[in-house]
């Protein structure tokens, strides 16, 4: 088997992987859009309200459609030996790859400032807890799922709408008390329920190996696709001349 034939085979396999992944995302997005209730039942509580209020199905369908298009371009470009399709495939996947690298660099550079950035968004928003339904549902789901309270701790709810409208009480998740008992400041203080930021950071740290492996795998597939597209295009260009 020559290098060109091998490159075509690799290109077809990679394109099919991208196509299948994209088609799966489109199917999931369509399922959630049409029958979100049954899909939500298999997800954790945090995702329940997130999917209900955000355009997650639209995001899945759009991203999956782009991946399906990439898979078709790559597969047809390799099979038909079309330079146009190959350069289209290369251009799109190169833009995606550069965007991912840029996002990774930004995350690394500003990771130390992540807490300050998130707190500047979360703490003012917690003042409206109990008033804004979408925001309240999202925080309730997060606190129940991670067994946490507020961003840093229960004091984030002090002077909030919920705190003032409920007789200086804190959300039930901020206290380790039997159901029905009010969550007052003393109880919240001695409950020592940690903030959601620490819980989420701990979860990310425990799964960093899995996340890194997935990221490396995706990057490897993209780099292989880019390399094969360049090789095939250059081979066909030389062959044409």
From TrEMBL:
One of its GO terms (cellular component) is plasma membrane. InterPro entries: Tetraspanin/Peripherin, Tetraspanin_animals, Tetraspanin_CS, Tetraspanin_EC2_sf. It comes from the Eukaryota. It is a multi-pass membrane protein. The keyword DNA-binding does not apply. Its main location: membrane. Belongs to the tetraspanin (TM4SF) family. SUPFAM superfamilies: Tetraspanin. It comes from Triplophysa rosa. PANTHER family: TETRASPANIN, TETRASPANIN-1. Keywords: Glycoprotein, Lysosome, Membrane, Transmembrane, Transmembrane helix. It is found in: Lysosome membrane; Membrane. Interacts with SLC19A2. Interacts with NTRK1/TRKA. This is Tetraspanin. The chain crosses the membrane at residues 12-34, 54-73, 85-110, 208-236.
């Amino acid at each position: 088997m020559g290098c060109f034939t091998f490159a075509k085979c690799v290109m077809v396999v990679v394109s099919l992987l991208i196509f299948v992944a994209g088609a799966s995302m489109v199917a999931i997005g369509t399922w959630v859009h049409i029958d979100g209730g049954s899909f939500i039942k298999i997800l954790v509580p945090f995702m329940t309200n997130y999917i209900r209020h955000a355009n997650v199905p639209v995001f899945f369908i759009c991203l999956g459609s782009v991946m399906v298009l990439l898979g078709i371009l790559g597969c047809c470009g390799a099979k038909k030996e079309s330079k146009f399709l190959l350069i289209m495939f290369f251009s799109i996947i190169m833009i995606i790859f550069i965007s991912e690298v840029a996002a990774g660099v930004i995350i690394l550079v500003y990771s130390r400032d992540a807490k300050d950035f998130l707190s500047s968004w979360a703490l003012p928003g917690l003042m409206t807890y109990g008033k804004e339904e979408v925001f309240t549902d999202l925080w309730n789901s997060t606190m129940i799922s991670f067994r946490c309270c507020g961003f840093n701790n229960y004091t984030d709810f002090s002077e909030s709408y919920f705190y003032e409208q409920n007789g200086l009480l804190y959300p039930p998740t901020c206290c380790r008390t039997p159901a029905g008992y009010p969550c007052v400041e003393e109880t919240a203080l001695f409950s020592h329920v940690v903030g959601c930021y620490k819980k989420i950071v701990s979860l990310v740290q425990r799964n960093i190996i899995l996340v890194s492996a997935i990221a490396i795998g995706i990057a490897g597939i993209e780099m292989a696709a880019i390399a094969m597209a360049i090789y095939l295009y250059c081979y066909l260009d030389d062959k044409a001349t």
